[in-house]
Amino acid sequence: MDTSPLHTHRWSRQLRRALEAPEHWTFLDAPAGALAKAADALPLGPYRDALHGVWLGHPLHPALVQLPIGCWMSAAVLDCTPGGRRQAGTLVATGLLAAAPAALAGWVDWARLDPPRRRTGLVHALCNTTGVLLYGGSLLARCRGRRARGRLLGLAGLSAVSLGGVLGGHLSYRQAAGPDRAAAVPRLAPPDWVGLGSVEDFPEGEPVRRVTGELAVVVVRDGDRCDVLAERCAHLSGPLSEGTVTGGCLRCPWHGSEFRLRDGEVVSGPATAPQPVLESRVASGQLEVRLPGAG
Questions:
Q1: Helix or strand or coil: residue 234?
Q2: Per CATH, is 185-290 categorized as 2.102.10.10?
Q3: DSSP code of residue 259
Q4: How far apart are CA 92 and CA 16, in angstroms?
Q5: Residue 290: beta bridge partners?
Q6: Where are the domains of the chain?
Q7: Structure confidence by residue, pLDDT tens digits, 239-264
Q8: Strands (DSSP E) along 231-272, which ranges?
Q9: DSSP per-residue codes, 80-108
């Protein structure tokens, strides 16, 4: 086997291209659109935000997938261990049960992605669904006493969910489908008071975009009070200055996340991370902002 740096680099590049390919498969848009509408139509009520992970502060799906994958990995090890076959079947069944809430959390997150990420997510889901079906067949074969077939189907299922996991990692980290998009705000916000303009320049109840240094902010005025938040939504960088203000909250125009104006807390997902808020004051009729706690 050629292990030269050039060969390794070529192999790595080919792998990255393979992982990037699904985001360009526009033929997936039609089924993805229909599935996204179906996921959005599920009567989940307040449980939708719970599945997004609003209560946790980051997406819940990556945490939930640990249980089925852990069960199936352990089952594969027990299948190779004398006397471990019965326990392996129990783990396969447990993994199948745990896959249901993990998949549901993944679908509600996926439905709020943009088309390129949605395409990759759909292929990720198809790999995992294939894995679940193979593990279902594995469990059925084990129950019928066909242990060799059950082990083979289990290994095939593990291969499918492993590929799905690689695509999930690509979706999360390379395509940044889950991270807090506003995490850099504390490093970009001004440490000292900076003026944004006269208070009279900001109409009441309307979000207005301003830029200070490298940071875009959105200002919402309510009488003598001005709330100032990072302008790009923490979910997928939607322009909050184009959003709507209602009930003391600012709603993102892209995916409907709502943030409380006074402290940036998430009132409604799919965003899970709070929207950064800048400290503000009015001095001589001028609105000034700075990084909270900088004084």
A1: coil
A2: yes
A3: E
A4: 31
A5: 279
A6: 5-174, 185-290
A7: 999 999 999 999 999 999 999 999 99
A8: 244-246, 249-251, 258-260, 266-268
A9: TSTT-HHHHHHHHHHHHHHHHHHHHHHHH
